Amino acid sequence: MATLNDIGVAAAINILTAFAFLLAFAILRIQPVNDRVYFPKWYLKGLRSSPLANGGAFASKFVNFDWKSYIRFLNWMPAALQMPEPELIHHAGLDSVVYLRIYLLGLKIFVPIAILAFTVMIPVNWTNNTLEHSGLTYSDVDKLSISNIPIGSNRFWTHLVMAYTFTFWTCYVLKREYEIVAAMRLHFLASEQRRPDQFTVLVRNVPPDPHESVTELVQHFFLVNHPDHYLSHRTGFLGLWGNRVDAIDFYTSKAERLSRDISSEREEVTNNPKSIMPAAFVSFKTRWGAAVCAQTQQSRNPTVWLTEWAPEPRDVYWENLAIPFVYLTIRRLIVAVAFFFLTFFFVIPIAIVQSLANIESIEKAFPFLRPIIEVKFIKSLIQGFLPGIALKIFLMFLPTILMIMSKFEGFISLSSLERRSASRYYIFQFVNVFLGSIITGTAFQQLNNFIHQSTNQIPRTIGVSIPMKATFFITFIMVDGWAGVAGEILRLKPLIIYHLKNFFLVKTEKDREEAMDPGTIGFNTGEPQIQLYFLLGLVYAVVTPILLPFMIVFFGFAYVVYRHQIINVYNQEYESAAAFWPDVHVRIIVALIVSQLLLMGLLSTKGASQSTPLLITLPVLTICFHRFCKGRYEPAFVRYPLQEAMMKDTLERAKEANLNLKGFLQNAYIHPVFKSADDNGSDSDNDITTGEWEQEPTLVATKRTSKRFTPLPSKDGGSLLPSDEVKDERSKP
Amino acid sequence: MATLNDIGVAAAINILTAFAFLLAFAILRIQPVNDRVYFPKWYLKGLRSSPLANGGAFASKFVNFDWKSYIRFLNWMPAALQMPEPELIHHAGLDSVVYLRIYLLGLKIFVPIAILAFTVMIPVNWTNNTLEHSGLTYSDVDKLSISNIPIGSNRFWTHLVMAYTFTFWTCYVLKREYEIVAAMRLHFLASEQRRPDQFTVLVRNVPPDPHESVTELVQHFFLVNHPDHYLSHRTGFLGLWGNRVDAIDFYTSKAERLSRDISSEREEVTNNPKSIMPAAFVSFKTRWGAAVCAQTQQSRNPTVWLTEWAPEPRDVYWENLAIPFVYLTIRRLIVAVAFFFLTFFFVIPIAIVQSLANIESIEKAFPFLRPIIEVKFIKSLIQGFLPGIALKIFLMFLPTILMIMSKFEGFISLSSLERRSASRYYIFQFVNVFLGSIITGTAFQQLNNFIHQSTNQIPRTIGVSIPMKATFFITFIMVDGWAGVAGEILRLKPLIIYHLKNFFLVKTEKDREEAMDPGTIGFNTGEPQIQLYFLLGLVYAVVTPILLPFMIVFFGFAYVVYRHQIINVYNQEYESAAAFWPDVHVRIIVALIVSQLLLMGLLSTKGASQSTPLLITLPVLTICFHRFCKGRYEPAFVRYPLQEAMMKDTLERAKEANLNLKGFLQNAYIHPVFKSADDNGSDSDNDITTGEWEQEPTLVATKRTSKRFTPLPSKDGGSLLPSDEVKDERSKP
Questions:
Q1: Chain-chain contact of A453 with B454 (C-beta, under 8 angstroms)
Q2: Number of domains making up chain A
Q3: A688: distance to nearest CA of chain B, Å?
């Protein structure tokens, strides 16, 4: 058992490590040669140019000789905090700003809880002599924890009241935060400039039709079912106000990037029916029209003509657009089963690898290494190091594995892929880090135990072990949290890779631009890590409040570091307007419920079982609170209110009456294959392409309209296709 | 333990009872005096007039002397089956027809299962001697069940294969049935005549506004956010094509039914702002417009301006229209807790009542009864009878209690109230009848046991008891199923009540009309009963297949009886177009999963635990199947596809170009208080009211439009109200 002294020593070591990282960072960042590693965001925004290109002494291009800048080596911290939130939203997007708010939320929840715990619970715990008389070995940490209260004591009422207070406080903060984030999101969406995704709906599972191509089919369907009433041939606005402004189909086949004959190649792809996916981005003239189409069911058969908001163009995950409905169900089942086995049985293959990767087999495989291995020091090093290596490698690749799973499941935007991976990563950490540390043994053993245990025994088993693991988790917070965050700011890996690339590969300024790896927040790994801290904080708040200050230091420090990184380094690949907040909210709720159940289990072993009814009420209330929040705030993250859409449409019409929306939208959703082809060409080339795209929908629309008024057979035979039936009836009156 | 002989005797008794009921029914139904009890549906349809009013001998008006009709006393059965399904839909509505399909579904699932079970499993079970050598008492029924297989036998593979076969068959039938019912629903909705609810959306939680009345607010909101584009003041269609055709507000205060001054009274209510609820029925010009509004979110704040499809006018539960969003969450919590206690602790108050209601306390309360009670025979009768009485009374009132709970929860249509009550009733029966019979003891004791048992022990505990209870459930099916259904057709209670009323109260023909009680299907009690049979059938299909024929007889007999009742007796209060089918489907899925888990528990005690992984796969696959069905078919029961709406709108416009939709809609949604006032008046009176209602929206619309074009302050002060802001911006271009 660690004493307070031990923890102090560990804290000192970790603080020193963190400090060393910060120092290294402070020195490295002001060297001009590292500028692109530590300030890539500004390069990407075009606000900073390479110091190497500027004039001046040769050496000072690479190394900073200005001694004054070394003195102010920590001044990045206040600088990081200075940029006000609205500016930060403009600079880095809402996703990043709301992501930072998760750290702030940690501070908001845990600072008052810690103050209350230290003024009320620590004295209550401390002024007992249970442990002294128990004859057990114990440490000072345990004297501050719930373990020091005698069995059946009335003092447990304090813990009960505190559990209620903490729950209410957490719920209050969560509700307020949800409210703020929802308002921020709505405000962000409302104040935003015109964006293509506001007008666009993604249509998937377009049913196959033997008579019409997908393009024609999509056009007919939406002409019939979403007639934009401002279009009227009577009034003569034809063409300019075509209903379906454009339906840019998406082509899979990989057009070769020959800049010479891009257009002919593209034409070929466009005309090849096999390369056309049954999915389309349909744009509308108004936000209202898009909002209506995205939120409603189009067809009788709910598995075809599936509409949803188009993700931001950058956010589209093109590979998954064409998965049929039935496959989605099957894929989800497969992934669910695979993830179950991954979580509970991942140790089995690792154990096999470990059993193979021993010194004997290495010696057998590489006999020439034997003399080196047989050295006693090296041998013991390898023996201590080897077993862990398979696990470390596995854990390193885990986020990638989870991301592959999510991709296989068929999500169609990067943001939803990351959110799904984050959920899975959290579950994995909950089972294997949280439960795995509390009840030693593999996840599978735990699972087996739980199945064979009675339902009310499970929280008891875990609850009892909770206080004993406090020191372990305090150390964990310092190593993983403090030193880990400090390591994040140093960016050792990108630094090394950048310099290697710079040395060996970079020839032009453009190459240097590509060698730069700003990275992203990494929601799929970062958020589950924060959530683990929320879980630890809530679980230990009542049991061992001494853990809370360590938590608070983590949240505060991480907030500053990530704010700095977001301002100077990360470059988000997409903007989902904080669509992840419901996930963050629900995971904190889960942590709260877990903490309540574990406290119940713990107290039931402490002769305070008369408190069980009161403790059972807590999760019920918490779930009820969650359902309320879900109903009240979640729609802001899922749907798009018509009032809002109408307001923006009206405003826009008032301000820019003659806006050419078509021109704005036509190039928004193009498969990267085509896009990169465009990028290679010059700007004028790009304009030509634009012209080409602009023509196409008009052409189709004209053909279509003529058909409407001439009963003569038109190009596609004039046969009565399913959608033609409806159309013909419409033209009757 | 009952032998096959015992069951035969019980079957004979129950068949005789059922036969006696049928005979009594056959005789009673052809007596003219009972005509209104057994054929009320035809009276309500106006297709049958009272035999008492016709000419003929006095006595023959009351008693049937035609001896020939007594010979054909069972001919109602083929008659009930003769009416073809489309005609039945027209006669009794889709709800009733689909309800009958539940019984048919039982036959479709269990007849093939029974055939397979009798050809394969009965021989496999029978040809063992386990029970003979076990020294236990056993019966012939047990010899036919899984109990007769020796522990660890390879014959369990038969049961495993059968479990798979039965699951796949059930899923196949379920999927096909879901498909058919969904198609029937869509066809019904599509082929239906114009109905007010197709054009109407219910708006709830209209936010309070200090400057505008609810009516004005609703009108402004929908004028701005759902501008119907065919309306244009420019074109001069004003009034005729007013966007918001009508928003009939709903007034709570109970207008006294004085036919003299109805209109003045109504005016008073209309003008009293306190009696106006923040809810409105908003009608649209097209089905498309209504479909869009019902399926989308209107406002930023998802707790106000809640829109949903208006229920059928008959189906509206007016009392719940005005419950605010926050209260709904709280009410749901309260009901959930109350239902939990009702299910698991209902025995406690009943036990208390029972302990009070003993002979001693009766003697104390009513000393004059003592001489009678002290007679030995009467005493023992009371002692045997009394304890059960409280329970019987409770069970009689249970559906009512559950219905009150559902009403308290805030559902806004009778159909959803019945669906919710049915779910609760099923859960109650599952816990207290199914589990309660298998594991003797109260539900609370079971709950307590389950909490203290390990998770994998629970299916084992129940599974082991399953085969032992087969004979009990066979008897249950005969008493509750066979004799119960035969009792249903006799309608003893309505018969007695009708004759009592007829004798004491009835003065006019109208009174007689009111004395008639056709009743309804009673979805909230009937469906859970059928579900209990599905559960029993699926659970025993593998374990004791001898139970299946009894089940099949029930389903067949009940089908005929209920078909007869639906044709001749029941009068549905509403038509939900089979909206209950997803509930039916999911409960059968639950029964399937329960049967799989129990089989797993049973086999694990039989030394066949190597089959566990194979058996665990079954529920996983079943859940996956359910999710597929939910995605594929449920939307047909929840949403209304735009394609469909557009098609109907187009057709209608083509056929009836000059339809006065406003006239059609204006009287559809009126609170029953007003409606009954109308009924009292003559037809011309009704017309006057119509005119009155017709005027109102036009008036408001005019005021509104003038405001839009004149910047002068209009009637309500011209101050910038929230919705005015938007409006003003719209009028800029």
A1: yes
A2: 3
A3: 34
Nearest CB neighbour to A733, from listed B329, B642, B657: B657
Q: B 613-652 residues with CB below 8 A of A?
A: 620, 624, 627-628, 631-636, 639-644, 646-647, 650-651
Helix residue ranges, H only, A192-299: 214-225, 262-271, 287-295
- Between chains, do B454 and A454 touch, taking CB under 8 Å as contact? yes
User: How far apart are the C-alpha atoms of A648 and A678, rounded to whole Å?
Assistant: 32
Reported as a single tens digit per residue, the pLDDT across A121-155 is 888 888 877 776 666 666 677 777 887 788 878 88
As given in the structure block, the two tokens for residue B500 are 């009592």
Give me the residues paired with residue B251 across strands.
Answer: B276
| pLDDT of the residue at A102 | 94
Contact residues, chain B, for A175 at CB < 8 Å? none
Q: Which of the pair, B71 or A470, is modelled with greater confidence?
A: A470
- The answer to the question of residue B448 being in a domain is yes
Reported confidence tier of residue A686, pLDDT bands at 50, 70, 90 = very low
Name which of B451, B650, B656 to mutate to probe chain A: the one with the most chain A Cβ atoms within 10 A of its Cβ: B650
- What would you report as the CA-atom Rg of chain A, rounded to the nearest whole angstrom? 30
Mean pLDDT score, B106-112? 95
Q: What is the pLDDT of residue A357?
A: 63
Q: What is the ipTM of this complex?
A: 0.71
Q: Which of A510, A517, A521, A509 is nearest to A493 (CA)?
A: A517
Condensed to tens digits (0 to 9), the pLDDT of residues B268-278 reads 545 554 455 67
- Which of B733, B645, B727 lies closest to B243 in space, CA to CA? B727
Residue A114 reports pLDDT greater than 90: yes
Size of chain B, expressed as the number of residues it contains: 733
Distance in angstroms (rounded) separating the CA atoms of residues B209 and B273: 12
Chain A residues within 8 A of B620 when measuring between CB atoms: 333, 337
**What is the rounded distance in angstroms from the CA atom of residue A270 to the CA atom of residue A214?**
11
Query: Are B439 and B479 within one domain?
Result: yes
Last residue of a domain, one of B577, B605, B638: B638
Residues B526 and B664 in one domain: no
- Pairing status of strand B276-283 against strand B200-204: antiparallel
B360 contacts: CB under 8 Å, gap ≥ 6: none
Distance of CA B139 to the CA centre of its chain: 40
Domain match, B149 and B105 both: yes
Q: Does B685 lie in the same domain as B597? A: no
In terms of Cβ atoms closer than 10 Å to its own Cβ (0-12, 13-18, 19+), residue B32 is middle
Query: Are residues A140 and A247 located together in one domain of the fold?
Result: no
| Chain A nearest-CA residue for B187 | A300
| A329 vs B333, B624, B641: nearest CB | B624
Domain end call among B610, B638, B666:
B638
The pTM of the whole model exceeds 0.90: no
Range of lowest pLDDT (A136-150, B74-88, B379-393): B379-393
DSSP collapsed to 3 states, A288-312 = HHHHHHHHCCCCCCCCCCEEEECCC
Task: Tell me what pLDDT residue B411 has.
Answer: 86
Interface mutation target, options B206, B224, B300, B301, chain A, most CBs of A under 10 Å: B300
Query: Domain for residue B414, yes or no?
Result: no
CA atoms within 13 A on the CB side of B654: 14
Q: Give phi and psi for B229, each to the nearest 5.
A: -75, -10
Q: Are residues A500 and A578 in the same domain?
A: yes
Asked if residue A189 and residue A220 are part of one domain, the reply reads: no
One domain, residues A183 and A206: no
Which position has the token pair 């699932």? Answer: B109
pLDDT greater than 50 at residue A718 = no
Flag whether A159 is in a domain.
Answer: yes
Q: What is the pLDDT of residue A643?
A: 74
For residue B284, what are the contacts with CB-CB under 8 A and spacing of at least 6? Answer: B199, B200, B201, B226, B228, B245, B290, B293
Answer yes or no: is A328 within a domain: no
User: Range of B714's domain?
Assistant: 196-311+640-730
